[in-house]
TrEMBL record:
Phosphopantothenate--cysteine ligase: annotated span: 199-404
InterPro entries membership: CoaB-like_sf (IPR035929), CoaBC (IPR005252), DNA/pantothenate-metab_flavo_C (IPR007085), Flavin_trans-like (IPR036551), Flavoprotein (IPR003382)
Residues holding CTP: 297, 313-316, 331, 345, 349
Record protein name field: Coenzyme A biosynthesis bifunctional protein CoaBC
């Protein structure tokens, strides 16, 4: 994972309001504030009076370096932090945790404290992370309020399921701070950088069938490709995801094509490639397939069995020469000589950029949430990233596209 000093400043120059309301999860809002500050943004914290019963404003003030606003009339002469001035400055407001009470007030337009008044004056995106007892969360009045807020365009970070502070199990636990901050980050980076891009992403493993019930495959989970697809979409790109079999849901708003074999992947890519501007090949495509794929199940007759394999078509080697106008980005998962092998692959396949993916005893990226990569440009520049989530790696790769 990233250590403190290596955190990427992906929210530099952004102004965020963090609203904190009176639930048991207030202590997690402290972590959300810390992560937001680490990512480079300015944060003004607004607490409801009930929230201050759980954690004192001093903690938020010390971390944000700003006064915390609690009361509507505490600073009648400070026009810099009245609700209108604050609303005008903000790029985004998030409410963490959001109580059942504040959901009701927001949904009805009640403005009887600073936070609910500010909510009515805000024109920027609002992210709400509810947290409460599972029975409260399932209450039809709370669900109706959430529906109303969604219809009004508010972004809801759904609570998780599990053990709650009130000793019962169910849905209502605040989403993890990192999830909330990632959500905020993708919302703020939305619809800008990659607006006119059409990006084809291949993901997942392929399956090469020996007979109808057996295949040769690899442990690729598809997570890296799906993270890139989701992030590219959130940055405004049109995304075409061509994926081998995975357990993942295709990201919202993405054009999805499911395939099984390397040949199917190549055929599908051929059908859609004409219109795309960029191709990012994260798929772990099988190099070989059984020479004969039996139409019927092979019976267990002998003690041993010899299978002859033949080469699959190499997707990059086939397509790059045919479409030199596209920007081609490859991935290289390597156990040895990481950078050197990746550089050779980039040269051999005439790619514009390659992402070298370390596979070692310490870093096994297949199926993991994190990975450790080196991004190598065609002109030889290397960017070595520390181990980080695949979503963060996706952002790092995609931020480079306009410079290629
Ligand atoms: C110990 C304790 C924990 C609470 N936790 C929650 C909670 O997690 N979610 C919630 O909606 N309300 C919770 N409440 C109830 C709220 O504090 C209460 O509804 C309050 O009016 C909320 O005010 P606010 O929304 O202005 O902060 C809790 C109350 C207590 C005493």
């Amino acid at each position: 994972m990233l250590n403190e000093s290596e955190t990427l400043k992906t929210l530099t120059d952004r102004e965020i309001i963090l609203g904190v309301t009176g639930g048991i999860a207030v202590y997690k809002a402290v972590e959300v504030l810390r992560l937001l500050i680490k990512r480079g943004c300015g944060v003004s914290v607004v607490m409801t009076p009930h929230a201050t019963e759980f954690v004192r404003p001093l903690t938020f003030a010390a971390l944000s370096g700003r006064n915390v606003i609690v009361k509507m009339f505490q600073n009648p002469h400070d026009m810099q932090i009245d609700h209108i001035a604050l609303a005008n400055r903000a790029d985004l407001m998030c409410v963490v945790p959001a109580t059942a009470n504040i959901l009701g007030k927001f949904a009805c337009g009640i403005a009887d404290d600073f936070l609910s008044t500010l909510f009515l004056a805000i024109t920027c995106p609002v992210v709400i992370a509810p947290a409460m007892n599972a029975n409260m969360y399932q209450n039809p009045a709370v669900q109706r309020n959430l529906d109303t807020l969604k219809k009004l365009g508010m972004e809801i970070v759904e609570p998780g399921e599990g053990d709650l502070a009130c000793k019962i199990k169910g849905k209502g636990r605040l989403a993890e701070p990192e999830t909330i901050v990632d959500f905020i980050e993708s919302l703020l980076n939305k619809n800008t950088l990659l607006k006119d891009y059409i990006i084809l992403i291949s993901a997942g493993p392929t399956q090469e069938f020996l007979d109808p019930v057996r295949f040769l495959s690899n442990p690729s989970s598809g997570k890296m490709g799906y993270s890139i697809a989701k992030t590219a979409r959130s940055m405004g790109a049109h995304v075409i995801l061509v994926s081998g079999p995975t357990n993942l849901e295709p990201p919202q708003g993405v054009e999805f094509h499911g395939v099984r074999t390397a040949s199917e992947m190549l055929d599908t890519i051929k059908k859609v490639i004409a219109s795309v501007t960029h191709v990012i090949m994260t798929a772990a495509v099988a190099c070989y397939r059984p020479k004969i794929s039996s139409a019927k199940k092979i019976k267990k007759e002998n003690n041993s069995m010899v299978v002859e394999f033949e080469r699959n078509p190499d997707i990059l080697q086939t397509l790059v020469p045919q479409y030199p106008d596209k920007i081609w980005i490859g991935f290289a998962a390597e156990t040895d000589n990481l950078v050197e092998n990746a550089r050779n692959k980039m040269r051999r396949k005439n790619l514009n950029m390659i992402v070298a993916n370390e596979v070692s005893a310490d870093h096994y990226p297949f199926g993991a949430e994190t990975s450790k990569v080196v991004i190598i440009d065609k002109d030889g520049k290397e960017k070595m990233l520390p181990e980080m989530t695949k979503d963060r790696i996706a952002l790092e790769i995609l931020k480079k596209l306009p410079k290629i």
